[in-house]
Design goal:
The structure is a homotetramer. Chain A has ten helices and 15 strands. By secondary structure, chain A is α/β, with parallel strands linked by helices. Chain A has two domains: 62 residues, Phospho-2-dehydro-3-deoxyheptonate aldolase, domain 1 (Alpha-Beta Plaits, 2-Layer Sandwich); 255 residues, Alpha-Beta Barrel (TIM Barrel). In chain A, the strands form three sheets. In chain A, strands 7-8-9-10-11-12-13-14 form an eight-stranded parallel barrel, surrounded by seven helices. Chain A has a four-stranded antiparallel β-sheet with strand order 2-3-1-4, with helices on one face. In chain A, strands 5-6 form a two-stranded antiparallel ribbon. In chain A, helix 5 crosses helix 6. The first copy, chain A, is elongated. The two termini of chain A are 43 Å apart. Chains A and B meet through helix 5 and helix 6 of A and helix 5 and helix 6 of B.
Chain lengths: 338, 338, 338, 338
Amino acid sequence: MIVVMKMGATPAMVERMTRRIEDLGLKAHVIIGTERTVIAAVGDKRDGEQETLESCDEVDKVVPILAPYKVASRETRAEPTCVTALDLKIGGGHIGVIAGPCSVESEEQLLTSARAVKAAGATGLRGGAFKPRTSPYAFQGLKEDGLKLLAAARDETGLAVVTEIMTPGHIDLLVKYADVLQIGARNMQNYHLLQAVGDAGKPVVLKRGPSATMDEFLLAAEYILDRGNSQVVLCERGVRTFETHTRFTLPLASVPYLQQRTHLPVLIDPSHGTGIASLVPPMAAAAVAVGCDGLMVEVHPEPSKALSDGAQSLTPNVFAEMMETCRTVASSLGKHLG
Amino acid sequence: MIVVMKMGATPAMVERMTRRIEDLGLKAHVIIGTERTVIAAVGDKRDGEQETLESCDEVDKVVPILAPYKVASRETRAEPTCVTALDLKIGGGHIGVIAGPCSVESEEQLLTSARAVKAAGATGLRGGAFKPRTSPYAFQGLKEDGLKLLAAARDETGLAVVTEIMTPGHIDLLVKYADVLQIGARNMQNYHLLQAVGDAGKPVVLKRGPSATMDEFLLAAEYILDRGNSQVVLCERGVRTFETHTRFTLPLASVPYLQQRTHLPVLIDPSHGTGIASLVPPMAAAAVAVGCDGLMVEVHPEPSKALSDGAQSLTPNVFAEMMETCRTVASSLGKHLG
Amino acid sequence: MIVVMKMGATPAMVERMTRRIEDLGLKAHVIIGTERTVIAAVGDKRDGEQETLESCDEVDKVVPILAPYKVASRETRAEPTCVTALDLKIGGGHIGVIAGPCSVESEEQLLTSARAVKAAGATGLRGGAFKPRTSPYAFQGLKEDGLKLLAAARDETGLAVVTEIMTPGHIDLLVKYADVLQIGARNMQNYHLLQAVGDAGKPVVLKRGPSATMDEFLLAAEYILDRGNSQVVLCERGVRTFETHTRFTLPLASVPYLQQRTHLPVLIDPSHGTGIASLVPPMAAAAVAVGCDGLMVEVHPEPSKALSDGAQSLTPNVFAEMMETCRTVASSLGKHLG
Amino acid sequence: MIVVMKMGATPAMVERMTRRIEDLGLKAHVIIGTERTVIAAVGDKRDGEQETLESCDEVDKVVPILAPYKVASRETRAEPTCVTALDLKIGGGHIGVIAGPCSVESEEQLLTSARAVKAAGATGLRGGAFKPRTSPYAFQGLKEDGLKLLAAARDETGLAVVTEIMTPGHIDLLVKYADVLQIGARNMQNYHLLQAVGDAGKPVVLKRGPSATMDEFLLAAEYILDRGNSQVVLCERGVRTFETHTRFTLPLASVPYLQQRTHLPVLIDPSHGTGIASLVPPMAAAAVAVGCDGLMVEVHPEPSKALSDGAQSLTPNVFAEMMETCRTVASSLGKHLG
């Protein structure tokens, strides 16, 4: 890190700060500039303690140099990670597609969706059994009954089941039915939950929190990796900005940015990322063109009757067309979808 | 809610939408404008289901009219709620002050802090025993040992202990030691945790998530209230914006805005809201002037050696001066601090 | 618009508001709900005056229904506008590419760039002669000398010259040399400048301000259209959000969103939109996949020596590869680049 | 600045970068860390050219150390600047209050406003004659007739006239009538306008752009100062964030943050900063408590009939009460309002 001293810091202050840095087990290099003195502190230390140096009166700011994450880093592992569950493959050259309804509502709704997305080329089936809802008065999911329906749909179609886990207490139940555990955006920094899925050993889709920085996102993945679970997919699903014409703002530049820094695969969720069904297919095509490792898309047999997220769900027909376009774009770039 | 039809919607489409609205148990009023038809749907319905009408092809947008929260609303309860724990009183004319270190680090560190903030006029003691940290490599708190130190500090000083709960599994442990349970900003939408503290019956400080809207914030409170726990304090601690010169952007207008809509008291946390110790005292004074019901401030005997949040912690002396100023501003407005 | 009355508004208040609405030349429909009364005000009025109704004590909020823009709207003109200058065609099925250096620095730098981008398939040449710079101490452009170099480059290559106008006083000078006038993001709401380019009659590239909403963006275009100039290209170049790993956050969903509402073509600037050269080619490909009508890309013979925006400029070789990829994606979707 | 090399940068790359830094006239210090090499470049250089080093392949990032502004800095001038026009004094211990209608609409409206705000203790009169409006169809101001009314109001009341200048071409006209020129938020980076008011020599109120960083804000002031005009007031009027319950988010922490860095006075505009009349008085009191050097408030004799900004305008009575409260808070802190 670089410690920038305030203007007018005396040699005694610089000397004192040098000792503080050395007390942290780091080596200090003092550089005297035209207006300010800076001290470069050299050593591998990522526990955040050093940032408290900013509280010293004589310090203007502290600039970290090392990335705060480690296991997630390309520098730790150069080749891309491929996350696998049944036929679903995400990363390492595979563009996996997970599709299905927001919530599991009934056997018929789920099976219709599952058959349709399978026919169109998806290899993963999404569907919420436990639903995190902004309002306590909204539909909260079918719970274990929903999980059973998901498992039955997998048995029929062979699609890998991807479903959200909301709290550590549910881990045994979820592990019984799901192939991939999803951490929702609201829980990206629910650290006990991250540790629980880390310990469970199932593949994990980790959604970016709507105001999480890239470092925070990668550090959340690091919590899972740190428990020995390396099957982690990063899912960009849009960030909260001043824009209100879309539900969230979906920054596709996250894909190449993350791929430069981490070996973990990057999934795009254009459904939550826009919140508007008519914007999902063009953004899915763009996600493929930008180089994503997978897509997660909400599909419902009758969106206008969905109990949640109807406005952003595709009908099976529109989804099939979307897949056709995405496949075309993928193969024009020498890649393979699904 | 108001359903705005697309331009060119035919009478048949309007008729069909009218029936859909009536199927939801609402009454429909059709208004034919110069360019568009809108349908006003009348009735008390807050479960979100109706928003899926936006997915209908013939609909341009759906505008909700009713606030989505109910029990938190001033319309449900006109008089302000006062949240109380030992001598700590927040709301209903009382400006309560909770102060102390970010993390409990040692007996000496905690007791020194507790005595100092008590002497300066605080009636609540903050201190984290379980710490949500962005990095898995950072100090995670003393856990139950920290809780014991907090309880001991309460026994000596009489300060009410306010400490964060991170996961539902900790509820029994926390209830044993704490007087007030805090839900951190990262967990504002951790619904199982909200329900757990709702059931526990202890007063709750609910921190606003860094990108939560006001409706989302009040709906999170509604989850707690809905379990029969009415002792909820709303804590504004800053939102994430493009500004980087402060850790977060602290919008004090939240105080009067919330007070117009809810009976729950509003606490300001200028420490997290700015992230910079020198900005805390002026923002605390401003919070009192804007009409807040309480303050939550980080104080550490030696900020530059803090294991977390050193850059935003006040020394005991600076905190005492801050309290003096806040008391002066409060009494100039006919209010009482502490 | 919909006027939502406060809870408890008396019949007399509703009556008074009804008259206020009628005084504005609108028809009022009163709808009495379970908790609130709303008044639908029918009529074509877009001058903003009605929003002052929100200042009435008895009014909770005012919800506009009509889009505030008119001439830019698809409802006014259904078929897409194609903006043309020499061989540059943007919109109406043509994906035009404008490329070149951020600033014109020298004859050699400009001609090298122009020849390279022409060879790779661009039909427009960008280059700033008058540079808006955040700091008064930064390079401000070669001014008229720069314009002369641009004109010379056009004479040699046939590329249409696209250059920024910063102030109405420069209009005569700019019109003399440029084929397309660019309004920079900082000037999106510089209304005298918008009117000046509206009067000048040259094609205009209007960049979105970094915190402009879609309505504000389209209303800025409306200022130009309102002077009778219909050759306006909307350029999305990224918005300012909490994200700092990229210079701006580039929301590609703007493309289909705008295309649904306006007949004006939409150009993407991945250079400013990311600020990082290595992210430009994937985002350009994604922009083509999402359906953009054109690209604007910074290219410099030697980015590390550029006097401005070096970090986001492509070398001629990387630009040529990017064009190859974009052409492939375009033709996979049945479109033609350049 | 600090140049952080990529991991794996070879000694030859470090050597080449060292020479590039020296070519810029800076001194280079190489520091070899455990994972990366950084090069500290020492010297006074603020022209932004060095940032193009980020475009070099072997560079990970460039961290600037020096503030980019100079004349605005406290390091250049330690004592606070007081900006003065007639009886209006802002800064250096004076809290000046500028009040009046958003737009000048008629002689009666303006004079009624002017007398009322004068009686309540304001010393500056605001009122727009040239109005920047988002829509070309909205009221654009009375233009020179409005300026004449403002001058007449000054002649009667002694209030200093503060009015907005929209374009350099108006400078002679504005200088004839106004005491203080205001640069609106939309024009904060309209550099030709900044230079024009810099040359005009009148005091300037410079409004922060809704997504301007602090450095950009201070650099905009620097454009004015750089022309020899030191009478510049910085006006914080709220930033654009994801929050929609208020028109903008008003970050009062800007006041102490700016006062630590610049000698220029800081004015708060709670009218635009909230957009809601009922939030203006508490935010004005908070602004005084946080230490602002002045207030700018919209007052209209009949807000519900205002041609612009009615929703955020105070009636004369509410303004008078607000002033009473602000005076009380100011004197409790040993300061004087007006």
